[in-house]
Amino acid sequence: MLNMSSIYCDAPENWGFGFQDIASPTMYGLVELHDHVSFYLVLILVVVSWFLVRGVYGSHAISYARNSHGHTIEFLWTLAPALILGAIALPSFRLLYLMDEIIEPQVTIKAIGNQWYWSYEYSDYAEPLSFDSFLVDGPLRQLNVDNYLVLPVDTSIRLLVTSSDVIHDFAVPSLGLKLDAVPGRLNSSGIIISRPGVFYGQCSELCGYLHGFMPIGIKVVSTENYLNWLATL
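and the corresponding structure tokens:
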């Protein structure tokens, strides 16, 4: 059997620089938007650097000082940034609204932030299931938990996030999840996880002196294994 951890990067790595591997349509959209924006950043850097070098060291460096203004260049450097901002804003708003959509959820999970652990509730079943998830020792520094949140793959899931004390944040990079857990308020997000695996995250809102010790562990399995897991509880 293949070791999934050797194929995918679903947890932080030493000297890691890029994103963790994509495991949901939401994260795919975020990475695509990042690449889209990076293209314009590199384009702007190249163009501005070219004008800077040419203006300082080029053969026309002195003649620029004699020009008080130029209607054409002023029009261009006003129009070009507006077009670039529009090209960035349109896909950004599209992704923002898509991330808020919850399409006919088949499973509803409630995550509750506590100082300093997470509690999970499955409320779709005749006998609601709930348990706590604490940090334990393991191979991954400050990421291993005693009870994993188990979810089915390729299933529309509604995630509800709240807090019992102070503000926390439920963040799992591979899934593109980052939801504030606010006392007295429910934040929701829809997610479809596209492959099985074990995914890790952490609280991403400073919540006290043990803020760095409340990891998130999510185990994604096939629908059959998910139903078998429910039957054993």
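(Above: one complete record from the training split.) The longest strand covers residues 107-114.
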